[in-house]
Write a structure and sequence with these properties.
With 363 residues, this protein is of the alpha/beta class. The protein has two domains: 142 residues, ATPase, nucleotide binding domain (Nucleotidyltransferase, domain 5); 166 residues, Nucleotidyltransferase, domain 5 (2-Layer Sandwich). Helix content is 42%, strand content 16%. The chain contains 13 helices and ten strands. A five-stranded mixed β-sheet has the order 3-2-1-4-5, sandwiched between helices. It has a five-stranded mixed β-sheet with strand order 8-7-6-9-10, with helices on both faces.
């Protein structure tokens, strides 16, 4: 299927589809990039008893929900399917089974309408979420992508190119939250559970190490923090663990968020920039948002924190990234000939994506 994508896009809305993990999501953006709808169906109840996402169960849940979620997004947007000018879908990184559900559905959906299907990098989607609330947020800037599977620092240039500055050497921050919550006996997902409990605790009562690696490095490491929590819990009896649970959660959380803040502002200093965007599921953490706002105000830094609806996995960010790829592409025609890439990185090419240099995100 060949489509005159740029011409169609200039006068039509775009549909976004996200299914990289355990959220089935669809959204519609108008031709100016404004969000008309953003529907998310959570699978928390499916995976809660396992303490984490089970890929096979996630894929089955996506199959059962994706059609209804897409229909609801189009209905809430107040448009007809025939008015859409394109479909943007996450092709990676993520879990293979869930990605296949979203990509195959989107290819079939776009083929039936005779409109282009654009494969989007999930990380590019998170980065694009920083501009959903504030399209005029300045460039160049530093972007911290922090979620269950990713902790990356990028420099985003004026023309949209992203340059990787640093990343985690082991666990992502969100993964550290989930595993810490599991050790504390808290509900899945772990990040929100620790955030809630920590509000009743004293983050100074039980100190945890903060792993900065080298002072000049922009890389992260959180595996040692989990070990520290494990050792502290092993030294306590059941009664003491329960008594100090809120303080443990607060101290553990403080170690994670302080490292994130320190590294993000170190990147600003290194690159001599004064604009910072923090995106991804962990950007919803209340303590992280407080610390970021305080330091940004102190140092005169422009700060972008997406609305809560755009922090966790959602399809509005995928639609936004797809829109930017289309508008920045020199290609005149598109097809849906691309595959899922579970280990996709920013800067990697791939079938169905623009040639190197055409995408506003490719490095």
């Amino acid at each position: 299927m060949m489509c005159d994508a740029p011409i169609a896009w200039k006068r039509r809305p775009i549909l976004g589809v996200e299914s990289s993990c355990d959220e089935t999501a669809a959204a519609v953006l108008d031709r100016e990039g404004r969000v008309l709808s953003n529907v998310i169906a959570s699978q928390h109840d499916v995976h809660a008893k396992f303490g984490g996402v089970v890929p096979e169960l996630a894929a089955r849940a996506h199959i059962g929900m994706i059609h209804g979620v897409v229909e609801e997004a189009i209905t809430q947007a107040g448009i007809k399917k025939s008015e859409l000018g394109g479909v943007a879908v996450t092709r990676g990184p993520g879990l293979a089974g869930p990605l296949l559900v979203g990509v195959n559905f989107s290819k079939a959906f776009s083929y039936g309408l005779g409109i282009p299907c654009i494969g989007v990098n999930h990380l590019e989607g998170h980065i694009a979420s920083a501009w959903l609330d504030d399209p005029a947020f300045p460039l160049p800037c530093i972007v911290l992508v922090v979620s269950g599977g990713h902790t990356h620092l990028f420099k985003r240039e004026k023309h949209g190119q992203c340059i990787l500055l640093g990343q985690t050497r082991d666990d992502a921050a969100g993964e550290a939250f989930d595993k810490g919550a599991q050790m504390l006996g808290l509900d899945f997902p772990g990040g929100p559970s620790i955030d809630r409990l920590a509000r009743d605790g004293n983050h100074e009562a039980i100190p945890f190490p903060r792993f900065h690696r080298r002072k000049t490095s922009l890389e992260f490491s959180f595996s040692g923090l989990k070990t520290s929590l494990l050792y502290k819990l092993q030294e306590m009896d059941e009664g003491l663990r329960e008594e100090l649970k809120a303080d443990l959660a607060a101290g553990y959380q403080e170690s994670i968020v302080q490292v994130l803040v320190v590294k993000a502002f170190a990147a600003l200093a290194q690159e001599r920039l004064s604009a910072l965007a923090v995106v991804g599921g962990v950007s919803a953490n209340s303590r992280l948002r407080v610390l970021l706002k305080e330091r940004a105000e102190q140092e005169g830094v422009s700060l972008a924190l997406p609305s809560m609806a755009y922090c966790t996995d959602n399809a509005a960010m995928i639609a936004s990234a797809g829109r930017q790829i289309l508008l920045g592409s020199a290609q005149e025609r598109w097809n849906g000939d691309f595959d899922i890439q579970p280990a996709l990185r920013i800067g990697s090419g791939g079938e169905g994506s623009p040639a190197r240099g055409d995408s506003p995100f490719l490095t």
